[in-house]
Please model this.
Amino acid sequence: MSSHREAPETAKDPVADNTDVYAFVSPDNPDAVTLIANFIPAQKPDGGPNFYEFGDDVLYEINISNRGTAEDDITYQFRFHTKIRNHKTFLYNTGPIHHLTDSTWNRPQFYSVTRVRGGRSTVIGSGLACPPCNIGPRSTPDYAGLAAEAFHTVGSHKVFAGQRADGFFVDLGSVFDLGTLRPFESLHLIPSADAAGVDGLKTFNVHSIAIQVPIKELTRHGNRPTDVMDPGAVIGVYASASRQKSRVFDQGKGRFVGHGPYQQVSRLGNPLFNEVLVPMARKDEWNAVDPREDSSFARGVDHPELGKLLPVLYPGVFPNLAAYAKPRADLHAILLTGIPKGVVPGFQNYTGAVEADLLRLNVAIPPSTKPNKLGLIGGDPAGFPNGRRVFDDTTTVELRAIAGATIPLVDPSYTPDGAASLVDDGTTDTNGGTSSAFPYLGNPGGGYQTQPGTSAVS
Amino acid sequence: MNSTSRRRFLGVAGAGVAATAATTAVPGVASAASTARSSHAATESVVAYVSDATSSELTLLVGEREVVLHDRDLVHRILNAAGR
Model:
């Protein structure tokens, strides 16, 4: 599910599990790019008494590559620290929390933002407050107002770190049940009646780190490009979480103590890359290396396992895909190098020949006045895979791409199967929705207000 | 060895081995604790990691730093202390 619990190790370490990355030219501030990285997947809103928070022992980073080398040319680092205001209570809050400074909030979390460029670190902000989790109407009576106190402006940047409604949506229950898609499951190898999709992430929250940065701070020439075909207009983005190399459980302190340099344990550029394209045996390794080392994972892109499975799982539905034996140059371009000029008229987000899973954004393309959640394949070049907006339906885009819908971009001799442009999992965002203003992801569902779902054994 | 000297490491390692000896009573290693600390010695907790018992490489993790050194004698002393 994008990158929620996508690898064996990160599935056991949710605080460091990078679930989604977004990068887009800000619709309400087109001179700035908004970068968002989500962590801590599948949060039940009523998950107390120890509600969710960032790891004080995790280094969170959003990395920018702007010279075509897939190296980290600019990194924004986020470090957190948590306080306990009242050591004599077990409660997260001892009364209603009206403001971030209220003493009734017993476990506030704060963070610093540091920009690293050319080996030089600059602290952009420190002592910045996160909001509490959304507990319920008695504890966090005006959650929207409370969260807004955590929308910080520091110099020319806006920053936010805290709980949000997960903007990603997918039918988890179906896709992991041998790749069935409820709207089309009468055609599945093990058929059943077609049904409406179920958003498996409905009611779940995540923790988001969002930063809005002037475009000229991100580009290789320090300018605000306006020519879409300018190579300097494209940036590559990925987020990561790192832990110190060694963790020793200190019995006296009752917690782990870290030693040594930070080592990356989770990363994410394009949604679903590690989840769908990397074999299980290498997923943890993928998380630990930098994108510039992704050439050894290119085979999973050029010959995706899911592309072979679709014709098997849906007999007779994808005959052209089943017969296609060439390497998938379309996926290779979309995910590993960016789309070079000449493939899609008037568009490119190519970052060079270095194969790297980066979310590539051409910042010269202005925000769309009529956004299409299918992004580029929906005729909207301001959306995925040109960066990614919070409302982009990346599951459908990638599903259709793997099903062969994008092969003709690079191989005009190929005719996609009719189903390739129709498949989806039947879901929409049924969570907190999105906002037209920073930080764009909606307020998280409250613990009291949100009703648990149903469970069925058979 | 990229950021420390062997002498400096011996001081740190000596303290670590002595602490181990206090809880597991490993004989024959207490003498290492007599090595004097240098003025540059680490003052915080240190993790020593021998990833391959057949090599001479020893990794020290301290603060947010990693110190990698190659000292066959020292690795052997640690392996001896850690053995049964």
Q: What stands out?
A: Chain A has a mean pLDDT of 96. The two ends of chain A are 23 Å apart (CA to CA).
